[in-house]
Amino acid sequence: MMSNNGINFTPLWNNGPAPGSFYNFPQNQVKSNSIDDFGVQRNSGPITTGTSIVAVKYDKGVIIAGDKLVSYGNLARYHNVDRVFKINENIILGMSGDYADFQFIKQYIDENILADFSMDDKITLKPKDLFTWLTRILYNRRSRFNPLWLDMVVGGMQTESEPFLGHINVRGRAYTNDVISTGYGTHLALPLLRECSEKGPLDEAKAQELVKTCMEVLYYRDCRGYPKYSQANINDKGCTVTDELVKENWDLALSIKGY
After folding, report:
1. Which of 88, 120, 172, 205 is the one with CA 20 to 30 A from 111?
2. Percent of the chain scored above 70 by pLDDT?
3. CB-CB contact of 238 with 89 (8 Å)
4. What is the DSSP letter of 27?
5. How does DSSP classify residue 117?
6. Of residues 4 and 152, which shows the higher confidence score?
7. Cα separation of 236 and 135, whole Å?
8. Quick one: pLDDT at residue 151?
């Protein structure tokens, strides 16, 4: 065997490795799991998931609420997990769907917020900006047949007097509305939200009471529900994220026959 500098090397033994190489033992050959072996891999569905998000836009701000449970299939696996976040002084965010996918996208959101802060140009990210960016990200992943299994609710203050509320789903389909709910809340909470919002503009007190009612209904009716939930409230006075608790009342069970 001839090296680059013209010096001849012989194997260490017959059929052995050249100097600087490792011997590939015939009995210990391990086949590498490469893309060529299995093809391109895709997520076929969410694994660890969070359930419904409830969001309401009122006259001076936005409220987003979601419980603090992340389920592993039918198992209530992870308790006390936040699914509602304050992104910056203008934006709040709620998520349903696969929590691992959300952790992935949250890293890029945080990087954008840090880059925005580092510019120090007195211009901060607004909710419509994040809403548009997330729409492009989710649609791009869906178009590549490798979606992020998420339902995202973006709320905040576009200006001091203009609240914003929008929703993006796993396919990148996006819309804005005064009331939004995801997951099982689409069937249980959204009718309650629409009934109240269609009567006229809501003030902050009515919006908070409406969200509280919806979270109670979801806890009683949704098997993925949980009594502890996070609630983010943003308006012209600032942004707060608080932990709330559903007041449970199971007296109705006493009236059921055979109980």
Report:
1. 172
2. 82
3. yes
4. G
5. H
6. 152
7. 26
8. 95
